[in-house]
C-alpha cells in the first residue's frame, strides 16, 4: 500500500513542473482498507482538481506468489474475493477507460464481486456493455489483464529498489569517508566523495 503514497508524491512533484500532461502509475488492492482510504481521500480529489493535466494508469494488484492469483486465488493478500474485484476493476479500465478513476472509487469499498458489479457496472452501463464486463471479470480475459498489471508493478518496484540501493550505496560510502576525515582532521569540514549526495543526520539528501 505504501507504493500508492509514493506515486501520489511523484504526481504532485511532477505537477509543480507545469508539464502539459503528467502520466502516473498507481497500484492498489481492492480489499485493502488503506487503499480505499487513499482512493477517496487523496487520489479522487487530486484527479478531480488536476484532471486536465493527468493521465493515471491504475493497476489493481495484490501480493501473491502466483502472478496475482492466476493459479491460486487464496494466494492473494486479502483472499479470493480480492482477486475477483481486482479482475472487475481491470476489465472496467479496459472497457470504459475514460471512467477508470470513478470505477475504482466505486468498486473499492464494496465487500464482494456481486455487489461491485450490481452497483458499479449494471447500475451504470447499458446491458451490452455490462455483460461484456461481467464475462471479462469472471473469465480468462480478466485474469490476463491482472497478469499484465502484475508485470508492470514488478518492473516498477524493481526500478525503485535499484534506485534506492544506488542512493544508499553512495550515502554509505560518503558517510565512511566523512568519518575518516573527521578522525584525521577534526577541525576541517568533511570531504564528500560524491558531490551530488550527502549524509545529513540519518538521511541521505541531494545537494
Automatic annotation (TrEMBL):
GO terms for molecular function: oxidoreductase activity, acting on a sulfur group of donors, disulfide as acceptor. Residues 1-20 form the signal peptide. Keywords: Glycoprotein, Secreted, Signal. It is found in: Secreted. This is Gamma interferon inducible lysosomal thiol reductase GILT. One of its GO terms (cellular component) is extracellular region. InterPro entries: Interferon-induced_GILT. Belongs to the GILT family.
Amino acid at each position: 500500500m505504501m507504493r500508492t503514497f509514493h506515486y501520489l508524491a511523484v504526481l504532485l512533484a511532477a505537477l509543480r513542473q507545469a508539464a502539459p500532461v503528467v502520466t502516473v502509475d498507481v497500484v492498489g488492492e481492492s480489499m485493502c482498507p488503506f487503499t480505499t482510504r487513499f482512493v477517496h481521500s487523496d487520489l479522487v480529489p487530486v484527479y478531480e482538481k488536476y484532471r486536465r493535466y493527468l493521465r493515471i494508469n491504475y493497476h489493481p494488484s495484490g501480493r501473491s506468489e502466483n502472478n496475482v492469483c492466476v493459479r491460486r486465488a487464496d494466494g492473494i493478500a486479502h483472499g479470493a474475493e480480492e482477486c475477483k474485484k481486482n479482475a472487475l476493476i481491470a476489465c472496467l479500465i479496459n472497457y470504459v477507460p475514460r471512467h477508470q478513476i470513478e470505477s475504482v472509487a466505486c468498486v473499492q469499498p464494496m465487500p464482494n464481486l456481486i455487489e461491485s458489479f450490481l452497483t458499479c457496472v449494471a447500475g451504470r452501463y447499458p446491458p451490452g456493455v455490462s455483460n461484456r464486463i461481467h464475462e471479462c471479470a469472471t473469465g480468462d480475459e480478466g485474469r490476463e489483464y491482472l497478469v499484465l498489471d502484475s508485470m508492470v508493478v514488478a518492473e516498477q518496484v524493481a526500478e525503485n529498489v535499484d534506485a534506492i540501493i544506488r542512493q544508499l550505496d553512495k550515502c554509505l560510502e560518503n558517510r565512511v569517508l566523512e568519518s575518516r576525515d573527521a578522525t584525521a582532521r577534526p577541525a576541517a569540514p568533511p570531504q564528500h566523495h560524491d558531490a551530488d549526495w550527502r549524509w545529513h543526520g540519518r538521511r541521505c539528501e541531494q545537494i
